[in-house]
Specification:
Length: about 425
C-alpha cells in the first residue's frame, strides 16, 4: 500500500485538496478553546498553573521554583554532552551568526530638501521570550536558530523556555547548551501554551517580554496567535511541512528522503511532492516505503499518520501550473529537487515567492543543521505574508525628523497649513504658524 496518496491535479476531490492546503490550521481549529483556557489559567494562577501542569508530565509534585534552570544545571549540561555534539553545535552557531550578522540594518540620516532632514535609528527590543519545542525530539538546532538572531540584534534580556525531557524535570542538555552558547540569559522549564502565556503576561518567576519567537506544535502555534495583540510575535510557526518539486532528473531515493525530512517531525506535519509523471511518483513512493522500513518509532508512525491527513504526491502536466500551485500552498520548506534547480528558480523567481526557504538541489536537513539561514519559518500558508525568523524580528526602527533652517521651515509651512486646514485640524496648522513670530 502506497505511503503517500497519488493524485493527478485535475482529479483531486475538493475536500481532499482543501485538507492538504489547510494542513496544520485544521489542528488549531480543534484546540483553540483549550488553549484559551490554558492562557487564562496562567494569567490567574501564574507559576502555580505551570507547576501543576509539569507535575502531570513528570509524575510528581513540582515546586514553582523548579521551573527556573539554575547555573549549576547549565554546568552539568555541558559536562554531560559528548564533545562531538558540542563541536557540532558550535559549528552550527558560527554559520548562523555569519548569515544573520549580514541582516543587521544600519542607521541613516538624509537631506529631504533644503533645511529638512530625516532618518532612522535601529534599537533592539528590551526582551525576548524564545520557545524551543521538545517532547517528540530534542532541538538544540532550534535553540541556536532562535537565540542567535536575538543576540545579534542586541536584545539585553533573552529568556528561553523548553518543556522537560521525558519524566525528568530538566531541559534537554544539548538544547540548554546551544541556547547558552548562543547568548540566552534566562532558562525556564515550561512548554506549549503555558510558556507562551507566561512570556506574554508574566508571572512571579517569569517577567513578561516584548517579543515571543520560536516554533512549536499546535498548542504553541495557537497560543502565539491568541497573545499577538499584547506582545509582538515572530509569526505563526506550527507543525513542520515541506513541498518537494521533483522533475524526475534526480534519483527517486533522494526525493523520498527529502519528503521524510519534515514528515518525520510529528503526526501533524505535512509533506507534499509535486511532480510530472505517475511512474516517477510511484518510484518515489517505493523509496519512501524502503526508507520507512529502517526508520525507528515513533518516526515511522508519524509519517504514516500525517501522510494520510496532509500528505500527497500530486502529478501535473505542465510546470507553470505546478509553480502556481506551489505558490498557493506557500510551504515552510520548498525543495527544488532537479538537476536544473538553479535555472528553474531563476526563471520563475518573480512568480515563485511564497515559501519560507528554498533548497536548490540540496537536502533540507543541510539547512536545518547549519548552512546559515534560519530554519524557524512560517507554516500553514503564512509564508505568503511572513518571512522566516531573522534579526529584524528583534529590532525597532525609530524615525527622526528635523527642520534645521528657516528656509526649510518656510518651504514646509505652506504645505503643512494647506493640508491641515483641508483635513480640519486647526491646531496642526497653528503649531506651524506659532513659530512665525
Amino acid at each position: 500500500m502506497s505511503v503517500f496518496p497519488i493524485y493527478h491535479i485535475g482529479e483531486i476531490p475538493a475536500d481532499t485538496l482543501e485538507r492538504i492546503m489547510r494542513r496544520s490550521k485544521l489542528e488549531i481549529d480543534r484546540i483553540i478553546g483549550d488553549v484559551k483556557n490554558i492562557i487564562n489559567e496562567v494569567r490567574e494562577k501564574g507559576d502555580e498553573a505551570i507547576a501543576e501542569f509539569l507535575s502531570t508530565q513528570v509524575g510528581r509534585t513540582v515546586k514553582q521554583e523548579e521551573i527556573v534552570v539554575k547555573q549549576e544545571d547549565i554546568a552539568k549540561a555541558y559536562k554531560s554532552l559528548d564533545p562531538k555534539v558540542v563541536r557540532a553545535i558550535k559549528h552550527l552557531i558560527r554559520n548562523i551568526r555569519k548569515f544573520h550578522k549580514k541582516q543587521l540594518p544600519k542607521n541613516f540620516a538624509m537631506k529631504i530638501e533644503d533645511g529638512v532632514y530625516a532618518g532612522w535609528i535601529i534599537v533592539p527590543l528590551g526582551s525576548a521570550g524564545l520557545y524551543i519545542p521538545s517532547g517528540k525530539a530534542a532541538y538544540p538546532s532550534v535553540a541556536a536558530m532562535v537565540t542567535v538572531p536575538a543576540s545579534i540584534a542586541g536584545v539585553p534580556r533573552i529568556a528561553v523556555a523548553s518543556p522537560p525531557v521525558g519524566n525528568d524535570l530538566a531541559m534537554d542538555p544539548a538544547t540548554l547548551v546551544a541556547a547558552h552558547l548562543s547568548g540566552a540569559h534566562e532558562f525556564y522549564i515550561m512548554g506549549g501554551a503555558h510558556a507562551i502565556a507566561a512570556f506574554a503576561y508574566g508571572t512571579r518567576l517569569v517577567k513578561p517580554v516584548d517579543v515571543i519567537a520560536g516554533p512549536g506544535g499546535p498548542y504553541t502555534y495557537a497560543a502565539k496567535l491568541l497573545v499577538r495583540d499584547i506582545v509582538k510575535i515572530d509569526f505563526p510557526a506550527g507543525p513542520s511541512e515541506v513541498m518537494v518539486f521533483a522533475d524526475g532528473t534526480l534519483p527517486a531515493r533522494w526525493v523520498a528522503w527529502n519528503l521524510l525530512n519534515e514528515a518525520e517531525h510529528g503526526p501533524d506535519s505535512a509533506a507534499v511532492l509535486v511532480t510530472f509523471s505517475r511512474k516517477y511518483a510511484e518510484e518515489v513512493n517505493k523509496e519512501v516505503e524502503k526508507a520507512l522500513a529502517g526508520l525507528p518509532e515513533p518516526r515511522k508512525t508519524y509519517v504514516f499518520e500525517n501522510s494520510k491527513k496532509y500528505g500527497a504526491i500530486i502529478v501535473f502536466d505542465e510546470i507553470d501550473k505546478a509553480i502556481e500551485f506551489i505558490n498557493m500552498y506557500a510551504p515552510e520548506h520548498l525543495a527544488l529537487d532537479s538537476k536544473y534547480a538553479r535555472k528553474i528558480f531563476k526563471k520563475y523567481r518573480k512568480r515563485l515567492v511564497n515559501f519560507g526557504t528554498v533548497c536548490l538541489n540540496t537536502p533540507i536537513s543541510a539547512g536545518n543543521y547549519g548552512i546559515g539561514p534560519n530554519s524557524t519559518l512560517p507554516t500553514g500558508g503564512y509564508a505568503k505574508i511572513y518571512s522566516g525568523l531573522n534579526v529584524d524580528t528583534f529590532l525597532k526602527k525609530l524615525t527622526v525628523e528635523e527642520i534645521r533652517t528657516k528656509k526649510g521651515f518656510l518651504k514646509m509651512l505652506d504645505v503643512v497649513v494647506t493640508l491641515a486646514e483641508y483635513e480640519g485640524f486647526p491646531a496642526h496648522a497653528g503649531s506651524m504658524k506659532a513659530r512665525l513670530g
